[in-house]
Amino acid sequence: MSTVSLLSDADLSPAAAKVFADIRATRQTDFVNNFWRALAHDPALLERTWSAAKQVMAPGALDAKTKELIYIGVSAAHGCDYCIASHTASARAKGMTPAEHGELLAVIAMAAQTNRLAQALRVPVDAAFEQP
Amino acid sequence: MSTVSLLSDADLSPAAAKVFADIRATRQTDFVNNFWRALAHDPALLERTWSAAKQVMAPGALDAKTKELIYIGVSAAHGCDYCIASHTASARAKGMTPAEHGELLAVIAMAAQTNRLAQALRVPVDAAFEQP
Amino acid sequence: MSTVSLLSDADLSPAAAKVFADIRATRQTDFVNNFWRALAHDPALLERTWSAAKQVMAPGALDAKTKELIYIGVSAAHGCDYCIASHTASARAKGMTPAEHGELLAVIAMAAQTNRLAQALRVPVDAAFEQP
Amino acid sequence: MSTVSLLSDADLSPAAAKVFADIRATRQTDFVNNFWRALAHDPALLERTWSAAKQVMAPGALDAKTKELIYIGVSAAHGCDYCIASHTASARAKGMTPAEHGELLAVIAMAAQTNRLAQALRVPVDAAFEQP
Amino acid sequence: MSTVSLLSDADLSPAAAKVFADIRATRQTDFVNNFWRALAHDPALLERTWSAAKQVMAPGALDAKTKELIYIGVSAAHGCDYCIASHTASARAKGMTPAEHGELLAVIAMAAQTNRLAQALRVPVDAAFEQP
Amino acid sequence: MSTVSLLSDADLSPAAAKVFADIRATRQTDFVNNFWRALAHDPALLERTWSAAKQVMAPGALDAKTKELIYIGVSAAHGCDYCIASHTASARAKGMTPAEHGELLAVIAMAAQTNRLAQALRVPVDAAFEQP
Description:
The structure is a homohexamer of 132-residue chains. Chain A is mostly helical and 132 residues long. Chain A has two domains: 1-58, AhpD-like, CATH 1.20.1290.10; 60-123, AhpD-like (Up-down Bundle). Chain A is 66% helix and 0% strand. Chain A is built from six helices and no strands. Chain A has helices at 14-27, 34-39, 43-57, 64-78, 81-93, 98-121. The N and C termini of chain A lie far apart (50 Å). Chains in contact: A-B, A-C, A-D, A-E, A-F, B-C, B-D, B-E, B-F, C-D, C-E, C-F, D-E, D-F, E-F.
């Protein structure tokens, strides 16, 4: 159970309702997932988080699917179960294939092991890697 | 300073030297970075790690640059300074532009904040996100 | 399910029972939560952990509610679901308002994103921030 | 060394320069720390991050010093050296005393140990802690 | 629910079935746990992960039980619920006593608190600890 | 540089001096490392941390070297550079051989990768692993 109640549409403040309307319009679906329903208790936090997510996750120099893959990588490293579940669903909706999912998992595993090895070995950064 | 010495080419065991030769052949450069020089004390660990990295980071369903972006995302979430430095250099060598780097950073920041929000709120996973 | 059984009062060793009595006296309630029931298998660890918690979380230079807020921040960053649930309840019992909870969540989100940005950017510490 | 160059005032784009002007006006100092100089390569990310930080860290239901303490707690749990250095300096500038710093450290240590104990023990959340 | 289906024996590709046969032969049991059933969607990842696990977790300079204790320590610090559950069971199967479990938990708690203290204090490494 | 000054022996309060005397007597060396010199600003925190460390890291059901190995595993997963440096030195002083160090690193790498895989896959815990 969440640490705050999940607000139904009927419970929203006008400010939160406005954000929900934008979520629905942007995503072209009536479905609003639990994350936003929990955040809706604090309309300023809801608005800031949604507005940043909308901007950041839209296609730009990187396409939307690639952004989802990076997002899943970060979420796995942070151990966020909710985020892994929701963004794996998003990545699939944006076209992630089973083969791509498998390679994403392999990169996450690879990074996790070399990250902890480099830290346990205290490897100094090579001069060649420093930004000139 | 690292927790083990960084082995020079002259210090390598035959098994480690064989891995270094493959690193050089695969990457088509004489340069072998410190991570492998620290791992070289344990040829089995060196061989297993290099062989997995070579397989995982090669282009497949995902291209090599996308894999580097995911790698950087995981490394940032794990706070691995060495890995961030070395893979940011790799990503650039594979064509990451400043605009792509900026968007990568934005996705990392976005995921970090929503990861910790979802955890602090203990948001339950929506039924819609469960794999059928 | 926990990795050890949760001990009922009837199962406690005399050393563990003594700690439970102090938990009840200090908190002025008969309720002893699962964390202590799991720790009770190792009375030395139980005693050391409770005794530190009692000392650290009591009002001092910082008031008890502020300490709970910091505790929740650390627990969110560690992804500890149990700790988030129990200390959010504690913070509320010590007077945390919905507005304070919202701002706590906003600070956690802010720190999470700038933490990972500063790490991904490898920002060097400014001389001005070094302790003189 | 950072993964991007730290921009001097002369190197800023007009959009980044506008954010720097607001940082200086808000903080009433000419000093702009390295974090913003690294972010300045991506004016949209710079603007979004600064604007959120300005809003979140200002006094509200929680005072500015308490927010810094929470920030340090999260940053310690994320192992962000830059953030610990900069926000410990900020907290002192906002009046954090040595006694408060000591208690902050004690709460961080307490949370870290109980977080990992609760996770290693897989303690189930008590019904009493669930939000009604 | 997992982000991929858990494959039953009947669903396995020939490559995955070969790995399952080796898991069964190595462990001398018919039981194959969920982790491998989820990985089995990607036979290359399954094979690489199992082959590394088999090699790394076998008795060597360190005995198999000690390796499980280290594994649990890392898993607790990463907050991996599945890994804590499965490797606590493994450690018990390899002879971990309740007293050893209690001391393992105490070391995890000790490391967690001093790790975050050393980071929050930014303690510089003593010259005496540097590898000569 | 640390966030507090590192206290020399001449700067210690009587309470801190008493702890330093016990550190020296217990370890049978005059050397007191920086971690304790930073903690010494808060004698209560210093005393509590040292007293717990002394108790926890002493040989018991697990020998002192095994405890150091677990400690290094947790510290690597937390990315604590100071702790990795100091406890790798401690483990060597307690007899850790290069072969044992190599296997420790291999277990850390193994756990790191399977931890993040299990989390990214959201693998449900097998009934067989639940504590009866």
